[in-house]
Amino acid sequence: DQSLARLDDSNTLIRAGASEAIGYFSDADSEKGIEKALHDTDRLVRQAALRGLSYQPSKGRTALVKEFLNLKNISEQERSEAYETLARISPESMEDVIGQLLGLVSNGKGDTRRESLFRAARLAPSDERVIKALRGELQSTDSSTLVVAIRHLASLGDKTAKSEVGRFLSHADGMVRAAMVQSLHDLCPERVWDILERVLSTDKNSNVQRAAVEEARILRGPSAIILLEKVAGTAAYEKEVVDTAKNALDFLRGKPPQAYCR
Predict the structure, then answer these.
(1) Residue among 245, 219, 247 nearest 234 (CA)
(2) Does pTM surpass 0.85?
(3) Which of 23, 37, 49, 51 has minimal Cβ neighbours within 10 Å of its Cβ?
(4) CA-CA distances (angstroms) from residue 203 to 90, 211, 232?
């Protein structure tokens, strides 16, 4: 098999591609190939092998991931990815996996910490431990982490996230402000139209403005039409923002007038 032969190639990217590709096959030779790839000297190849393992559940693959997790010389980033693979091919391991991932969130740094949180949220979005961790991350200084915490908690209608609407709409990073705007239809705070109008009149970031326009389209109702017509007829906004408002108006015409947040 060509993929198996490529596991010995001198090129790291070729070995990585082969390591992931053989994960689609369930024969004994492919499983041995993945085991070999898990011990490759290059981290990229080992991580590709972990992705390959996730494509098909089996007791043999579960054992390989557990053996990999027992290795002393793997990075925390690899350990995080291995836990996600284990959860996907061995659902009965989920409870322990979430605990391990959140342990990496508590004790890890940088990308590993952030990715472990993302993985826990993907795997167990309603787990109380995950929700508690995400609430804690609302105090994070890392914008990417904040965005994930805001979006995830908002999708659950979380009261803690709802209480922080004003703070995040004033955040220094436009990415965070946009994420909060895009979560308003999930949180439905009081005076949501006043909030959107204030965003559109005070926030000069065009990405945030477009997010507010799109949010008005999602929220629907008479207030949406009024706000969108105002934006579409105002020369102060960039063309992309005005065009987004016009498209939103076209979308809403003929739609039921009932508002999303009631």
Answers:
(1) 245
(2) no
(3) 51
(4) 47, 11, 17
